[in-house]
Specification:
Blueprint lengths: L2 H7 L16 H20 L3 H15 L1 H8 L3 H7 L8 H10 L17
Helix pairs in contact: 2-3, 4-5, 4-6
């Protein structure tokens, strides 16, 4: 192996580039939550998982993938895979992502209880 190649591969002063995500803008989060909630709830109401994940992906992109990944404690690749329409993510993946977006899951009865009196 030529010495130039060896010198290039063993150079210790080369540092990898680091990119840091800008934090999620809290004012933007509050402003758009109502629309986001309606998108996600509509998909859940239709029991349409691909639509839910597509809406989630749009919301993630609006905040910035790197920022959401950092806030949720996952890497960007895992975030992309979780939000793919063909994915089947578990609740352990969805809850931290929703939390990073300022959202949460909530369980409600399908119908209102009738008054028995």
């Amino acid at each position: 192996m030529p010495s130039d190649v060896t010198a290039m591969t063993t150079r210790s002063n080369v540092t990898p580039k680091r990119t840091y995500a800008a934090p999620i803008d809290m004012e933007m989060r509050v402003r758009t939550n109502e629309h986001e909630v309606s998108l996600l709830n509509a998909a859940l109401l239709r029991q349409n998982s691909p639509a839910f994940l597509t809406a989630l992906k749009l919301i993630i992109k609006s905040y910035g993938v790197a920022a959401v990944a950092q806030e949720a404690g996952v890497n960007r690749t895992a975030l992309y895979k979780t939000a793919a329409a063909s994915a089947n993510p578990g609740i352990r993946r969805i809850v931290p992502i929703l939390s990073a977006l300022g959202l949460r899951l909530c369980v409600e009865p399908l119908t209102e209880p009738t008054d028995q009196s």
